[in-house]
Design brief:
Layout lengths: L2 H4 L7 E5 L4 H12 L3 E6 L2 H10 L4 E4 L5 H14 L5 E4 L15 H28 L5 E5 L12 H21 L5 E7 L5 H14 L3 H10 L9 H11 L11 E4 L7
Parallel strand pairs: 1-2, 1-4, 2-3, 4-5, 5-6, 6-7
Family: Belongs to the short-chain dehydrogenases/reductases (SDR) family.
InterPro entries: NAD(P)-bd_dom_sf, Sc_DH/Rdtase_CS, SDR_fam
Organism: Ramlibacter monticola
């Protein structure tokens, strides 16, 4: 295999993408599909799932709350039926969580953020690892963290705390699973263009008493390249990490953020 060919995932990989019906997850699912992988996606949003499956008939789907152990078990029942095994887990599920000062934060919002952003990573990894250990196709896990997983993030403490924890989970699993040939890495996206980022900007603007336009400019001033990234940028890194070119890349927290300097 030459270098250029090694930059693409091997066709036929069996891939599970959590929260893959829209945004970054959908971009990753489509990218793997285009590379010839067999892709299964789960998501809590049935409407978005049906739209993805209509647009990409080769992608199979499950409706699931990624923080629910029962739902995760049902997803793996579907994975065994549709894929017959697993080579790649993309642990992508996550929510923005609340935007507020710690003293006024609702405990239920904290707990929900931890459940979706962190507990889901554990639940899916726990079920995926036996299948990945049986894979003969350079198995790997890609955990979606955030630039908030390497920097402090005022008014977004539940989100930042969970994203730091995802990096710790990834580092530990890379050591634990390396002897069985399973690679584990994390991607740390920065500000990703789209509806979710617009909502984050609006909420942070409201919490700090500035306009959304001013808050957007503040975000851009903190980025060396003075631009946000796209879901396609994150998908491209995911595919690279699952390609033969990355066969010796494990235990890494890789930022795709145009170099966010501070938050």
């Amino acid at each position: 295999m030459n270098i250029l060919d090694s930059l693409r995932p091997i066709p036929g990989l069996k891939v599970l993408v959590t929260a893959g019906a829209s945004g970054i997850g959908a971009a990753i699912a489509r990218g793997f599909c285009e590379a010839g992988a067999r892709v299964h996606v789960c998501d809590i949003d049935r409407v978005a799932l049906d739209r993805l499956a209509t647009e990409n008939p080769d992608i199979t789907i499950s409706t699931a709350d990624a923080s629910s152990e029962r739902d995760v078990d049902l997803v793996f029942d579907d994975v065994r039926g549709t894929l017959g095994g697993l080579d790649v887990l993309v642990n992508n599920a996550g929510i923005a969580g609340p935007t507020s000062g710690i003293e006024s934060m609702d405990a239920g919002q904290w707990e929900r953020t931890v459940a979706v952003n962190l507990n889901s990573q554990f639940l899916f990894a726990r079920r995926a690892v036996p299948l990945l250990k049986a894979s003969q196709s350079d198995p790997c896990i890609v955990a979606m963290s955030s630039v908030a997983g390497r920097l402090g993030y005022a008014y977004r403490t539940p989100y930042a705390s969970t994203k730091w924890a995802v990096v710790g989970l990834m580092k530990s699993l890379a050591i634990e699973l390396g002897p069985q040939g399973v690679r584990v890495n994390a991607i740390l996206p920065g500000a990703v263009e789209g509806d979710r980022m617009n909502a984050v900007i609006a909420a942070r603007a409201a919490a700090t008493g500035v306009t959304p336009e001013e808050m957007r400019e503040e975000y851009l001033r903190k980025i060396s390249l003075r631009r946000m990234v796209t879901a396609a940028d994150v998908a491209a890194m995911t595919l690279f990490l699952c390609s033969p070119a990355a066969r010796n890349v494990s235990g890494q927290a890789i930022s795709v953020d145009a170099n966010v300097e501070y938050l």
